[in-house]
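User: Hey, quick favor. My workstation is busy. Could you predict this chain's structure for me?
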Amino acid sequence: MSGILVIGVGIVRLLTARELVQAGAAVILVEMGEAGRESSWAGGGIVSPLYP
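Assistant: No problem, here it is.
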């Protein structure tokens, strides 16, 4: 696996990037604002920690 560019880093993309890094990929995150604070902030309780 080689380098991967992730554009826009809400919770789903942050978790995806984490999995890619754990699999050995080099990941670059690009976000216009603060990472994980846009739509993830608005939908705070939608992603449940109960399911992997």
